[in-house]
Amino acid sequence: MSTSSRSRSESATAGSSPDPTRAGTPSDGPGGGPAPVGVWLIGARGSVATTAIAGCAAVAAGLHPATGMVTETAAFAGSGLPALGSLVFGGHDTVDCPLPKRAEALAAGGVLPHGLPSALGSELAAADAEIRPGGPLPGDTRDDEELIARFADDLRDFRTRRGLDRVVVVNVASTEPVPEQDDRLPASSLYAAAALRAGCPYVNFTPSTGLHHPALAETAAEAGLPYAGRDGKTGQTLLRAVLAPMFVQRALDVRAWSGTNLLGGGDGAALADPGAAAAKNAGKERVLADVLPGSPEGEVHIDDVPALGDWKTAWDHIAFDGFLGSRMVLQTIWQGCDSALAAPLVLDLARLLARAHEAGLSGPQPDLGFYFKDPDGGSSALGEQFGALLDLAGRLAPTAEGDPA
C-alpha cells in the first residue's frame, strides 16, 4: 500500500470500530417485539431506491405480492430475516426531488402501478424525511475525512433517533467511472468507509469502487462487519450465468459471445461516460471468463437511448460449434424494467445482511454471489450460486434457544 493510500486508510479507520453490542445481540423494540432495522440507500431518490421503498411498503401492506423476492419464498421462512414491515428507510443523495414526486414520475412511466404513489404517500414522505445531503458536490471544500465523518454521523443519528437494531447501507447510486490514481477517494468509497465507521453492514449494488478501493482493504478486514458486492445481476448477465454453464456441460465450444444494451434514464446517461461503461462491462464479462474455457471473441456495447426511460433491451449473439464442427448461433433478447428487476434484490440483500450481522458473520459474503455480476468469490454459475444461497439460508436460521445458528 502506498503512503498516500495508507494515510487515507488510516483516516477512514479512525473511530471506525463498530458497536460490539450490535452484532449477535438483537434488542427489543416498542412492545417487546423485534426492533426495526434500517436500510440506508446511497442514491436514495433514484429509480431503484424509490421502487424498493415503494415496493417494500406495498408488499408489507398486502397491496401487491412479493414477486421477485427470493427471501419471501419458503426456503427462507425459518432464516430469521427481518420482516418487510420492520424496515425503516433513509439515505444519502445529491438531488432534491422528493420521493413522492419521483414515485409519481415512475408511475407515469409504467414502472410503478398507477395509483400506488398516492396510496403510499405517507410512507414515501416518511422515507424522504430521512434522506440527507450526499457529496461531494461541485465546489465542496470538505476533504475525505470530513465527508466520511459527516456521512457516518448521519448513519449513527438515524440508528439512534429511530431506535433501530442495526442499519444496512446499500449503494444504488449511478455508476462511477473507474477512479483515477489520485489522493481522493471516489464518492462510493467515501460512503463505504462511513458505513464501516458507523458499524453498518454494506452492500454495493453498483459497479462503482466502494469497498474495493485499496485504501479501504485494511479497514474492511478489521471492521468485523459483513459486506457483499458488487453490481447487481438483474438481466443480461443473469441470463449469461445460466447459459454459459449449459454450453460447458453439453461440451459445446463457444467461439464468440457479443452483446448490446440499449437503455435510457439515469443509467443510460451515466453509462454514456466511457469510464463508467468500462466499469459496468467488467462485471458483465466476468461470468464468461469464469465459466467458459478459453476466451471467446466479442464484447458488450452500451448505448444511451433516452426515449427508453427506465426500460432496457439487452441482446446477445452467441456463436458456437457443435458435433463435427457444425456452426450454430443462439440469440437472446431481454426486455425489462431495470428498477423493477433490481428493487426486490435490494430488499433481499438488506434483509440477508441484517440477519448475517445479527448472526455474527463478518467479512465478504461469497454465498450472496447469486445477486452479483462481480461476486466476492465462489462460482459464477447461477445454479451453484443458488445452492450456496440456500445453504446460507439454513445457516442463518436461529437455534431452538433463539440464538443465532
Q: With helices defined by DSSP (H or I, 4 residues minimum), what is the helix count?
A: 13
CATH class of the largest domain: Alpha Beta
Which CATH architecture of the largest domain would you pick?
A: 3-Layer(aba) Sandwich
**Major sheet characteristics:** 7 strands, parallel
The H-level CATH homologous superfamily of the largest domain, spelled out, is: NAD(P)-binding Rossmann-like Domain
Radius of gyration: 21 Å
- Which band does the percent of strand residues land in? 15-25%
Q: Number of DSSP strands?
A: 11
Shape type = globular
- Order of helical and strand elements: HEHEHHHEHEHEHEHEHHEEEHEH
Q: Residue-averaged pLDDT, rounded?
A: 88
Can you tell me the number of structural domains? Answer: 2
Distance between the termini: 37 Å
Helix and strand content put the structural class at alpha/beta
Structure description:
With 405 residues, the protein is α/β, with parallel strands linked by helices. It is built from 13 helices and eleven strands. The radius of gyration is 21 Å and the shape is globular. The strands form two sheets. A seven-stranded parallel beta sheet has the order 3-2-1-4-5-6-11, sandwiched between helices. The longest helix has 21 residues. The N terminus is likely disordered. Helix 2 packs across helix 12 and helix 6 packs across helix 7. The two termini are 37 Å apart. It folds into two domains: 286 residues, Rossmann fold (3-Layer(aba) Sandwich), CATH 3.40.50; 102 residues, Dihydrodipicolinate Reductase, domain 2.
Describe the SSE topology.
Blueprint lengths: L2 H11 L23 E6 L4 H14 L26 E7 L5 H10 L7 H4 L1 H8 L2 E3 L10 H18 L5 E5 L15 H11 L4 E3 L12 H6 L3 E4 L6 H14 L3 E11 L1 H7 L2 H18 L8 E5 L6 E11 L5 E11 H21 L4 E2 L17 H15 L9
Parallel strand pairs: 1-2, 1-4, 2-3, 4-5, 5-6, 6-11, 7-8
Antiparallel strand pairs: 7-9, 9-10
Helix pairs in contact: 2-3, 2-12, 6-7, 9-11
Family: Belongs to the myo-inositol 1-phosphate synthase family.
Organism: Streptomyces triticagri
Protein name: Myo-inositol-1-phosphate synthase
